[in-house]
Design goal:
- This protein is an alpha+beta fold and 200 residues long.
- It is 22% helix and 42% strand.
- Strands 1, 2, 3, 4, 5 and 6 form a six-stranded antiparallel beta sheet that branches.
- β2 and β3 form a beta hairpin.
- α2 (132-143) packs parallel to α4 (184-192).
- The longest helix has 12 residues, at 14-25.
- The radius of gyration is 17 Å and the shape is globular.
- The mean pLDDT is 88.
């Protein structure tokens, strides 16, 4: 294992930044430490249907869990302006305020172990930071343990590139084998019909 420092700029999505790093560099590991603050936090509490969302001056206390090209499993705890502590499963839509400094432990592949899969997952999803329908779509994919790649649309150029590809202006945008299938409603309908199982 080797350690890797990671600095997230204001406006970055904490969860999506780690997902993108793991997918882009093909690395797996875990979070060793974190210091920073947030303007918005989205986290899933046990037994709740939807994530809890807090906004304001939020201080990160801990971030624990693992990441890999196949996905992340992270638990966040934080305090609000009244020093009340909150926590749960980290969700997309958790936005960095002034900065977040992470130290991550990258697991080095052992000699003789299987090489990482080079094939691209059949399922892709384009999301907007803070979009609740995007969070729900990503939760479906994680719940079903479906391999997928995530494109986060952070600026006009990325928006235009995704729009040209899909012909859509709403998010999320879901692609299977390079072809757009629609948004959250289409994905949820495929889940209900059992049509997503073949993508595992």
């Amino acid at each position: 294992m080797h350690s890797l420092p990671l600095k997230l700029a204001p406006g970055s999505d904490l969860r999506l930044s780690l997902e993108e790093l793991a997918q882009r560099d093909g690395i797996s590991g875990f979070v060793l430490g974190v210091v920073g603050n947030l303007t918005k936090a989205s986290f899933q509490c046990p037994g709740q249907a939807d994530p809890t969302v807090l906004e304001g001056d939020l201080e990160v206390i801990t971030l624990n869990g693992t990441f890999s090209p196949e996905g992340v499993h992270l638990h966040l705890s934080l305090s609000d302006g009244a020093c009340q502590v909150w926590g749960g499963h980290l969700e997309p839509g958790t936005i960095v305020q002034k900065g977040v400094d992470l130290l991550i432990g990258v697991i080095e592949q052992r000699e003789g172990s299987p090489a990482p899969q080079s094939s691209t997952p059949r399922l892709e999803i384009a999301v907007l930071p803070g979009c609740p329908w995007c969070s729900r779509a990503l939760r479906i994919l994680r719940t079903l343990d479906l391999p997928h790649t995530v494109t986060t649309v952070n600026d006009d150029a990325a928006f235009q590139a995704v729009q040209q590809r899909s012909g859509m202006t709403t998010f999320p945008q879901v692609f299977i084998d390079g072809s757009v299938i629609g948004g959250y409603d289409n994905l949820a309908a495929m889940q209900a019909a059992g049509e997503l199982d073949a993508l595992r």
